[in-house]
Amino acid sequence: MNNSLVLKGMILLCSISIFISCKKEPITATESPNLEIKEVGTANSRIVYAGQDLHLDAEIKAPQKIASVKVQITLKATNYGWSFIKTYTDGYQGSKNVRFHEHIDVPENALAGIYDLLMIATDENGNKTQSITNFEIKRDASLPSATGTLLKLSGNTLTVSTNVSAPNKLAKIAVQLQSPSWTRQFEYIDSDLVGSTNYAFNKVIDLSEAPNGHYHVNIRILDQTGKFITYSPHFDK
User: Fold this and answer.
1) Which of 9, 73, 135, 185 could be a cystine partner for 46, CB 3.0 to 4.6 Å?
2) What pTM does this model have?
3) Is 9 inside a domain boundary?
């Protein structure tokens, strides 16, 4: 009887050993990056004019850390329009949560039309997430324009300067400072500004009440026919 009990015990132990050895190791799933395009064009207008720059803003979260962010632009109807492709790493690689913010120059000879914009976020494990949207390139030679735009921060003082051209004469220039926690707008209708076709804009803005952070500066130039263009440089306080 004792021999029988010992035999049964050995069989039970062998069965448990076989079960354990055959049990599969759990597979650990890695989470792909999360990519959300927030803005294409100033204030998410999804419009950019040839010869200007395209404002692009997105939020990326990558538990496995970001390796790169790729942006690809092609004309929707055909592959023979303006195209753009670039892979970004500086300022993004190694981060888990980041705000992607770039300005892409659109050449003056870019064909007008609807364009596809593809973004691909890749993490350090090779996981990829992509998002696609579209925007429109327009052409209008009579629009106001600005060149040589500069932002100079000195303590709590920001100097905004740019050289403005307006074939239809200037009506107003507005400067909006925007961050997640603080937004202010300033409008300028100086006597030497209104009615000018060329104007050297140079204004000093007090930022003593503005908290530290990343700011967009939306410079909106309005002419006397109601046409306007907006430039969106940015700075960190």
Assistant:
1) 135
2) 0.69
3) no
Q: Which residues of 99-113 are buried (b: 16+ CB within 10 A; e: fewer)?
A: ebbbeeebeeebeee
Q: Which domain holds residue 168?
A: 145-236
Overall number of domains in the chain: 2
Residues 130 and 196 in one domain: no
Residue 87 shares a structural domain with residue 132: yes
pLDDT digits (tens, 9 = 90+) for 107-165: 988 999 999 999 999 999 999 999 999 999 998 989 999 999 999 999 999 999 999 99
- In degrees and rounded to multiples of 5, residue 167 shows phi and psi of -55, -30
- Between CA 131 and CA 120 the distance in angstroms is 7
pLDDT digits (tens, 9 = 90+) for 172-201: 999 999 998 999 999 999 999 999 999 999
Q: Are strands 157-165 and 145-154 parallel, antiparallel or unpaired?
A: antiparallel
Q: Look at residue 82 and tell me if it is in a domain.
A: yes
Asked if 90 and 124 count as a contact pair (C-beta separation under 8 A), the reply is: no
Q: How far is it, in rounded angstroms, from Cα 201 to Cα 228?
A: 16
- How do residues 86-122 score in pLDDT, each as one tens digit? 999 999 999 999 999 999 999 988 999 999 999 999 9
Question: Token match 């659109």: residue?
Answer: 106
